[in-house]
Amino acid sequence: MPPPNPPSDPPIPSSILILGAGVFGLSTALSLSHHPSFRSTRLTLVDRFATPHAATSSVDSSRLVRADYADPAYAALGAAANAFWKGSEWGADGRYRQSGLCLLAEKGGGRGEGYVRGSLENVTRGKREREREREGEGVRVLDGREEVRRFYEGSLGGDVGEWGYVNWESGWVDAEKVMRWARKRVEDEGRVECLTGEVTELLYTGDGARMLGAKLASGEEVRAELTVVAMGAWSGRVVDLRGRASATGQILAYVDLNEEQQRKFANVPVPLNLTRGMFVVPSSQGHLKIARHGFGYANPVRIPHPDPRKRRQADGITVSLPRTTIEDPGFWAPREAEQACRETLRRMVPELAERPFSKTRLCWYCDTPKGDYLITYHPDFEGLFLATGGSGHGFKMLPVLGDKIVDCVLRQPPEEFKHKWCWSDSQPEDFLWTDDASRGGPQGMILDAEMKKGSKL
Ligand SMILES: Cc1cc2nc3c(=O)[nH]c(=O)nc-3n(C[C@H](O)[C@H](O)[C@H](O)COP(=O)(O)OP(=O)(O)OC[C@H]3O[C@@H](n4cnc5c(N)ncnc54)[C@H](O)[C@@H]3O)c2cc1C
Questions:
Q1: What are the tens digits of pLDDT across the range 194-243?
Q2: Candidates 103, 231, 326: which one to mutate for ligand 1, based on the most atoms within 8 Å of Cβ?
Q3: CATH number of the domain that 217 lies in?
Q4: Strands 63-65 vs 42-47: parallel, antiparallel or unpaired
Q5: Which of 79, 197, 416, 426 could form a disulfide with 243 if both were Cys (CB 3.0 to 4.6 A apart)?
Q6: Taking 50 as the threshold, does the pLDDT of residue 319 lie above it?
Q7: Residue 2 reports pLDDT greater than 60
Q8: According to the model, what pLDDT value does residue 126 have?
């Protein structure tokens, strides 16, 4: 008889429950279902929605795909993901478009300039200085407002920034299509049981020390040896993440394009101006999208303490959680946000300057203090793992993220991320503002206060 397998370290759980089927949850489910160590593990995925839903962070007409990061570790991860979008089924059937990305800042040492410099260094590292731009590849520096203006002459036609570079190897994906495809893949493979239900709380042993699973709004309890919380910006509803992760609402506005404009803008590089915090995705799903990559709005709400041991002592805690069209079907952007989008349109795409917005939306980042993901075991509860903290840049990593998450589940976090994705010391602040040097626009805005100032210009 062959000797039994030696016990693995850490022991492999007999069952894993993943809460949330966004980028973090789906990628975890996919990687676990292929990993030999988990071939006997029962895998369950729960989401509030049976199919990817428009109010969640992973669903939209576009998400940027780039290796353009000032931090070399994320630049390398982005480059690894990029290879999948370009060269595999991940990006097939029109899901990925290699339009190029123009990363820009205003000169003078303001916000964003250092990030653009760092990013340029990372994407050109190992290549000859200012390697020549060829059709569809390479990096080209754009120095001065006039050179940038000439670059966009005949397409966007406006002032997108003063200095930066275009990286022809970056682009964007149709995030909605990708999520539908990835979800179907998980379902078709048949390894993961997919349940639909709203998680209302986590289940603990009587002493509160061990995680048992989750309770759904229907009253059903779903149990597992390991629970992975991947509920994106909603994660703070079931785990006390104060000071570590917090929901911030980011504005998006859309204008419809006619067919001629869709053709004209189809392959125009996305301009992302980090000083202004604004960017435009020229053409996806029949519209042009204006977005702010900023500090966002906090939406503080009072909730019962998620830790059962503290629930009776305190009258709850304040955390920032998303407010979406689910709670507010008639949502329209606060005036301040609509103004920022309108100014961006007038400046970057004068041809569409006064075209009405067909839709506005708040999309919620799960923000962490420095913009690092939060992928780690919870130190206080056995059997609880966190896979969240996308901080506005998680989507592009989808093809490679699940494997990294599984490495962390196996307590082998990637060396370059082990101090970034861990459970760090922090003050339990009600909400936080990410400072990763990539954010622009106003800081410290509370959603309710901005809504009270008015909406609809
Ligand atoms: C405006 C905006 C622009 C962005 N741009 C980019 C970009 O250009 N490039 C990039 O790489 N990244 C970008 N991102 C970031 C990226 O989209 C996110 O990091 C990523 O999608 C987050 O995935 P997630 O799985 O953490 O969250 P989500 O996609 O929000 O998934 C969370 C899931 O949990 C479920 N859930 C929540 N509460 C419950 C509950 N109580 N019970 C059951 N299920 C629940 C939700 O239904 C949802 O499916 C952007 C994000 C936003 C908001």
A1: 999 999 999 999 998 899 999 999 999 999 999 999 999 999 999 999 99
A2: 231
A3: 3.50.50.60
A4: unpaired
A5: 426
A6: yes
A7: no
A8: 67
Q: Domain limits at 218?
A: 12-62+174-230+370-425
pLDDT digit string, tens, across residues 11-35: 999 999 999 999 999 999 999 999 9
CA separation for the pair 280, 182 (Å, rounded)? 26
Report the nearest-CA residue for atom 12 of ligand 1: 393
Which SS3 state, helix, strand or coil, does residue 221 take? strand
Do the domain assignments include residue 55?
Answer: yes
Please check whether residue 37 lies inside any domain of the structure: yes
Helices (H), 190-334: 259-265, 308-311
The single-letter code of the amino acid at 158 is: G
pLDDT at 136 over 70: no
Residues having CB closer than 6 A to ligand 1 are 20-25, 46-49, 53, 56-58, 63-64, 198-199, 230-234, 250, 252, 291, 363-366, 388, 390, 392-396
Q: Which of 236, 274, 172, 276 is nearest to 367 (CA)?
A: 236
Q: Ligand 1 atom closest to Cα of 390?
A: 19
Whole-angstrom distance, CA of residue 21 vs CA of residue 46? 7
